[in-house]
């Protein structure tokens, strides 16, 4: 049965529905209460009826049935009991796999197909069929189970009439309580919907003056009023003509709204504006709201050690309430409730699972590493994705798991050991320079890039205040360098692969589409391909704030906390269609396995572009053999390495100004020593900003002599730098060179 489905392409992941958690919790409480009462009533009855002739009792019941008399009022639940099929063996481990749960069984079966030796034996298959009949417990709930009768209220080894008998006052009370709870949950949901609808459609007769209720300065803001004003302003922005004050413009309203968002949610103005600009005002509000609540807890089954069914059973035995994360994943389990810390169970310690956000599955699924391949995970710590890749490759082939941060690489090693990944080698290098120099010719490369983390604000609220303009210059620049290295490390002629997946847990365009666009421009030998992740999520932007991106950018996927209830994420899959452009002999960034087609030197030098790259302009053809024009078409003008330098310099000047320093005084200070030393960490094509790094260090030195406030922000920026890049050798080199420079 499962074979056909096993071959089926993985469908789009269904959104994780948190409303279900509330309903499930309430349902569980009601059911356990009812079940407890039923058991107590049963015990009482049994002791009363001791010695009584059971056959007579059943006959009596039958008689009363044929007479049309019933002992208890016929409720919906009672009908369910009457229709219930008898003779089902009670299983020690409770799993709800009602016949309507066929989908879930298929998932388990499918999973078994990919897990090592987990379900090969006939015994195991029989175990599965036993499971199919098991209706005793619903701790593992299929997402489709809503609205299905809960037959499992009663034990299965009883026949129809026994079940009927057990409709005592005790369990009827339990059942009606359950219904009440369900109704209450539905009412709450409806109420919430009404409120939302009112927000969208409330057309007040007058024009609310949101500017009137300014709060006195110096006082703590009244959060309720602030929230009200936020929703009012959003409503006004939805129909400015009718609701707006005649003397106020859209900009005035947006300005007020952004200030209120900053105060209410605690963002710095720069970040609030950046995030706000991604959405309509109404959706931006939903996004900011979603960042205030945690995402569902998800664990990934490590199929190198177990299978999902066994893991689910083991955890259910410990009292964990969980269900499969959705049809899109055969290894994910969403955890609703756990009486035990999930990071300390024996199953966790034995490496049967890893705590991993649902959206973190997606880049690996998009990369789809195959058994036997050579795969690179460029920025791998703490290893959630590395270990998933290793499992998909069934511990065959080779995964190079690299991370620039030594302490983080140690955590990565820990996870690799715990999860039993034997095909993985850990390296601790700056991926910008190490690859493909040290190693190249990979079948696939994953670059889960260091980022500003704007997709995971619910996990790290520090992002709200710590990320500023400077970060949005520095980090995208590093992402570009890393992605160039990723592409150059892939073997375009790989029989099975030739793919790069680029992902970030950030939602900003600068770190996502803009990085990919830059790469398309620098590397005409790559093209965007479908991620294979279906319709889940939203397409990447093809234009943003006046900038046009490649039309294929729509094939990249964006995920948002408020839309899919997962961490904000971006996934782009690239296919390398030809050899890496040849760099100058001094910039030997091409791998041995990726033999480039060099142009004649005279011609090459004439085509040298601003950052000294020699581009192999051999036409790249698409799958239909048609030459692809990377230069023209829908490509809008876009910044290159030099633009970066300019933007970074501008942001640096702004940063210094904010600290009360004169940028001219600081940045134009004559420097001794070799500035270029810091470029050791960068490719020749992207060396320009290294000067800025030197300047930054110099500026930081300057600020040490300045007042405390200036020192503080300087230290902050140092700290962030540490977090993002880690204590790499190249960092040390940078520090040395900047020391020299500032001397
Ligand atoms: C988003 S995290 C990676 C998470 C990881 N892929 C996972 O799923 O567990 C980014 C990582 O990039 C590392 N990193 C930062 N700069 C790097 C560089 N230049 N080269 C390699 N790794 C770097 C950071 O230390 C950090 O661990």
Automatic annotation (TrEMBL):
Compositionally biased tracts (Polar residues): 677-690
Chain intervals with Basic and acidic residues compositional bias: 75-86, 644-654, 692-734
Gene Ontology molecular-function annotations: RNA binding; rRNA (cytosine-C5-)-methyltransferase activity
Positions of the SAM-dependent MTase RsmB/NOP-type domain: 287-577
Stretch list, region Disordered: 1-162, 580-743
Keywords on record: Methyltransferase, Nucleus, Ribosome biogenesis, RNA-binding, S-adenosyl-L-methionine, Transferase
Catalytic center residues: 505
Annotated PANTHER family: 28S RRNA (CYTOSINE(4447)-C(5))-METHYLTRANSFERASE-RELATED (PTHR22807:SF30), NOP2 YEAST -RELATED NOL1/NOP2/FMU SUN DOMAIN-CONTAINING (PTHR22807)
Name of the protein in its database record: Nucleolar protein 2
Biological classification of the source: Eukaryota, Fungi, Dikarya, Ascomycota, Pezizomycotina
